[in-house]
Give the backbone structure.
Amino acid sequence: MIKFESQMVAKPYFIFALTLFAGQILFGLIMGLQYIIGDFLFPYIPFNVARMIHTNLLLVWIIFGFMGSAYYLVPEEANVELHSPLLAKIMFWVFAAAGVLTILGYLFVPYSELAELTRNELFPTMGREFLEQPTLTKIGIVVVCVAFCYNIGMTILKGRKTVINMVLLTGLVGLAVFFLFAFYNPENLVLDKYFWWWVVHLWVEGVWELILGAILAFTLIKVTGVDREVIEKWLYVIIGLALISGLVGMGHHYFWIGPGEYWLWMGSIFSALEPLPFFMMVVFAFKVVRERKFEHANKIAVTWALGTAVMGFLGAGVWGFLHTLAPVNYFTHGTQITAAHGHLSFFGAYAMIVMTITSYAMPIMRGRPLGNPMSAQKVERFSFWAMCIGMLGITIMLTIAGAWQIALQRMPDDANALSFMVTQEKLIPIYWARLAFGVLFSVGLIAYLVSFFVGSKEAIIAQNNGVTQKAPQEIAGVCCGACDESKAS
Amino acid sequence: MSDTFTKEMARNIYYGGGFAAFLLLLGLTFDTMRVLPERDHRENITPSVAHGKGLWEKNNCVGCHTIMGEGAYFAPELANVYDRYGNGSEEAFKSYLQGWMAAQPLQIQGRRKMPQFNLTSEEVDNLADFLIWTSRINDNDWPPNKQG
Ligand code: HEM
Ligand code: HEM
């Protein structure tokens, strides 16, 4: 069963994350249709409103997922109760309320009025991609992050300082620290953009990779029983390479927004190395699963862990490399190619790691130490494939759209290039195909949510009874942590 | 990974490598801040340009458009819209933008829509000044052609 009562605070975080995920996809579908039928829902939901809801919900649900993961795994790793479950519960409601209010604001108040209502002119931070939140909401996010890091930090301080816990904490503190650049919004657009990337890039290609690595390592230890020493070594190398390539790799965003020419070289070379840690994650995950010490009965959690490594590598590694060299990026910059990469990388790395740990931890928190009954796992397996194939389909369609857009609009000279709007009209058949894959993705998500409710009482009991039928050392999920105690540093 | 490669070595790669990379990033940033004034011609940021940037943000233009290739991919690139329609004349561009902003949303069924923002003509001039200033940033000759 669950090792510490306080781990249970993670549950509402996971549930709320999945709820927001569903909202994100609804607005994705709306935009997918607006790409084809330009006046769909206009003027009630203009495209920019749908977009900020789609992307803000994404960021917020991923962060909810990270927080849930931390509340679940940090006490278990540290081998102590969470410092303050009450603080975790309060911050859940503060964050949820701030998030919901902000989204409702986007939806029901014209953006410029929202800016006035929240006194943006006193401290302007709104109106930039991904950072559309009113300044007040941003302050709220900082408060929540500080309280969260304090709670997690105190817990680790009291208990075992495992490598996984230390790496996770570094990632979470980094997330909070780099978010502070969201408050820097100078009059000079070039400076604004330069440091905007210190939030966005240093998150997804920096500190978030530490969080990703730590959660993946934790789940793999739990579902395979492989020696901690081995896993920690891999974790260090992966995140080490991520920082070495990714920090200066930020240069791939500095090609065409004002900074000097040497960024063309620095950005290309360093970011070309960024796929390496993602590739190592694939090798690592498959190696660990191959060398597993037992068959965990929560098989689908293992599938998610492997899937995260593979899809993260495809999205970030392969689709990132595709457009990261300056001579290529000169043509692909800001086209549908960027959207293709943004989707597969965010889904493959961050959405999937949250579903990985959800899939592992939720059953345990619901009193199912050996995972959900097989009938539920079957539905979840279908959802895994529907979402992965749906997202690969979306990505491939956007890549075709992007390549065609470049051929019509970017490559020809001034006299022969088609305008943006004419080009977009030619791409409509591909946008239909993208939307179809979006529907497949949505079916997968619905199946995922449904899988939580599948399985009779008897099936659940039968699954749980697997516990008594196996020799103790072969039992996963009920692990009290004592067996790996001696090896932890 | 082989046994001769120990966890301590791996940890050193992480701490040493991460720290070195961060220092390199700080150094490059410091250098960039030094040379940037020549490239971003910040001396030309008039109050009108600054106000234009504020309006750009307040109305979330970046939620549909890209500017210097960043933003949304639903509507045309605007960092070079001055080059596209201005014919080298700031006056001509301003009157074009006045007309364009006033005409929104265009009544063409099924076409992608740009909302009516109800801006004053002074505010539209601010936006125009901001877009003109942006078009003159040294951005290594991006985009490849004037369609953006
Ligand atoms: C999981 C990790 C990653 C995530 C979540 C991610 C996400 C994104 C997103 C959302 C954008 C669009 C930003 C915007 O709206 O302007 C973007 C842009 C970009 N990414 Fe990534 N990315 C990841 C890793 C990588 C890697 C490893 C590489 C290089 C190998 C890479 C190369 C690029 C490039 C070159 C752009 C700029 C595209 C353009 O010029 O329009 N990304 N990324
Ligand atoms: C039904 C499925 C989905 C559809 C139809 C969809 C559609 C869209 C559209 C139309 C945009 C705006 C592109 C533009 O600016 O013109 C967008 C942006 C974005 N979506 Fe989705 N989306 C879907 C699912 C997802 C999922 C599952 C994720 C990640 C987990 C995601 C992450 C993003 C990101 C990161 C952006 C910003 C991209 C950038 O700036 O380059 N979307 N989406």
Summary: Chain B touches chain A through 71 residues (CB under 8 Å). Chain B has two domains: 1-40, 44-148. DSSP finds five helices and two strands in chain B. Chain B has a mean pLDDT of 96.
